[in-house]
Amino acid sequence: MKHVRIHLVVNGEDYSLFIKPNRVLLDVLREDLELTGTKEGCGLGKCGACTVLLDGRPVHACLTLALQADGCQITTIEGIGEKEVHPLQEAFIDKGAIQCGFCTPGMINTAKALLDANANPSEDEIKQAIAGNLCRCTGYNKIVDAIHSCGCQSEKEKGEVR
């Protein structure tokens, strides 16, 4: 199979890669770029463990061909809180929303996309946003609380700035 060149911007870094056209983004991130924070769960797009942000939108990296990401901005968990702990990461820790941690990268990427689009989502909006991310440990209440606390915190910060 012929290799093709793609250009990705991952966590602000430019990459030019030669890949087989049938490779999924998850494999390129984990194997070629050694960004192993993105997890492979089901490989079918049903668990959300592989969720990354593609131009700010959450996508399942196990279902996205790397070719589809050519020229796009990709954010993995390594790019969130790269310089300092992101408020979402802090909230997940503070609220006990992390147990085994396997779902956490995808969950945080999904939550970040939600909060970027809606700084103060309702509990129902949070539940709807994370519906594609499975967690077998926490029961979701602590995850919802963590995301909700970030939304509320963002609103408080906005109020202080005014």
Low-confidence spans: 154-162
Task: Count every beta strand, where a strand is a DSSP E run of 2 or more residues.
Answer: 5
Shape: elongated
* Secondary-structure-derived class: alpha+beta
Q: State the helix count.
A: 5
Distance between the termini: 57 Å
Structure description:
By secondary structure, the chain is an alpha+beta fold. It has five helices and five strands; from the N terminus they run ββαβββαααα. It has a five-stranded mixed sheet with strand order 2-1-5-3-4, with helices on one face. Strand 1 and strand 2 form a beta hairpin. The protein is elongated, with a radius of gyration of 16 Å.
In short:
This protein is an alpha+beta fold. It has helices at 25-32, 87-94, 104-117, 123-129, 141-161; strands spanning 4-10, 13-19, 51-54, 57-60, 73-75. It has a five-stranded mixed sheet, with helices on one face.
